[in-house]
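Feature request, filed as a ticket because there's no other form

It would be nice if the structure record came with a short human-readable summary line next to the tokens. Right now we just get the raw output. Example of a typical job, pasted below so the devs can see what we mean:
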Amino acid sequence: MENSNSGLGFGYYYWLQWQVLVCALIIILPTAIAVNLLRKRGGEPVKTADLWAPCWRNLHPRWLLFYRAFAFAAMSFLLYQTVASFGFFVFFFYTQWTFALVVVYFALATIVSTRGCRVQARKPLAQSGERHRFLKKDSEEIKYDTSSTSKEKVGGGFIKLESDHNPNPDEEQVGFLENLLPILYQVSVLDIIHSEGVFLSSFTLSCYAYGHCLLVSSAPIHDEVQASVSALKHLIGCMHSLNAVFLLLESALNRLSFPWFGIIYFVFWSCAYIVFQWVLHACCFTWWPYPFLDLSTTYAPLWYLALALVHIPCYGLYVLLVKAKNAALSKMFPHSFVRCN
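Raw output as currently delivered:
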């Protein structure tokens, strides 16, 4: 499709097609539902120890810190090399969005783990809030007795104990970074499953049907851009694999929970990329990085609907993986493994 005389991306007639309105509704409706669910969700308590303590009792938190720092350094180096070689043009593709998100997660996780190790260094593990998780039933009874007897009757009066002022004196303060870390983790793992699924399915279709990768547009573009895309395709497989490996190891080590509302932030992230692409194409770009995002075909609403619906099985698959992890490892290592909530 040719551009208009204004020279801005596609002509205005491109955005007046009926499929554009349908695709816009497919984006707006899930976003509105996600916003409504987020407003009704309310506050969820964050257990700070779950952010930096491993799910293995005998594994010191510093090992999780070392792993997160190594993952951040390795992925940051690869992202830097990619941007240095191809410029910020690489962020035109969803793969780099996902990769950058995981880099940010590991950077934040390293900071939180550093704080956690400092907290543990100031007090033994048996004296911290982790005691209630390790001693299970007995510690829960002690905690209940302590809270129920926080006031003692002496000589007709009441003596207020220290627990009345601070019911959890060993619990460190929850800040912005501690609240942001679970959100980034939930979006990252769902994003990896989503992008890996699209990548593998597109690669399979390219092998059996088209003979070229569906993850890169086959539309005619400038020679210099085409050369960059061709070179960048060689890094896509490596970045996909590195994303998956590092997050799988992270999931096997950490104790982060995975509540149902994690899919809300995943929807926001996906919609942000779609809006990003639409804005670019409305302003300056005339080709799509992925052909299933092209709005000029009559099948565009079906593609967008499929991309929207695939969020549900992605969430369900990871929930099954978490439950399988808890069920299998708790039976295999009953005295070493700590179940994730």
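Something like this underneath would help us a lot:
Residues 176-210 form the longest helix (35 residues).
The chain has two domains: 1-42+263-333, 50-134+174-258.
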